[in-house]
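Morning. Coffee machine broken again, so started the prediction first thing and wrote up yesterday's gels while waiting. Chain of 216 residues, entered below exactly as on the submission form.
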Amino acid sequence: MNAETHAAFIGRTRIAHDAIEPWRVEALSAALDLDLPHAPGDPLPLPFHFTLFRETTRRSATAPDGHARRGDFLPPIPLLRRMYAGGRMVGHAPLIIGEPVEEVQRIAAIDEKSGSSGQMFVVRVEHEYRQRGRLCLAEERDLIYLGEGGPVAALAPTQPVPDAAWQRDWDIDPVLLFRFSALTFNSHRIHYDQTYARDEEGYPDLVVHGPLLATL
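Came back before lunch.
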């Protein structure tokens, strides 16, 4: 991608509408082995909004990695690997279960960088979530694009976690990864297809979703 292509995508905006249905909160709570209120009128737990605005891309419009083909909303960056790399959220008011919600997405920046793995791009997408015209949640997501993966590296030994004032252990297994993929309609194969994750993108095992880590 060149600077002219970058400029054409920066500022691109799309608007979507959804409803916060109670079953979504119930289903994600069950996947996380929690029991959270999910009746109409209850506040949506943060950040359970990840289950909203699922991109129901037609199979014919899906790339080999399971993502929607690039160039529609997100820029057509040619690097193979793409993932959620981080984000920031600011809650202004609770989103209410059972009510409609509007999402506005805007591509805020496209930065080309170089690192130990070579060329990369970071795309920052702004999200705003509104109910009854009021801004309830503002979020920025950083999507990172990397070139082809190198040789599969051995997993480093797990180090003990220091004691903290509050902590909880989570068993992140393929069942949880599948459920989160299903609830968010995320068909990226690195989260459920171990052979693809290892042989095509160079990861030593299945990759935990960035939004799932943010939720935990």
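The two ends are 35 Å apart (CA to CA). Going to sketch it on the whiteboard this afternoon.
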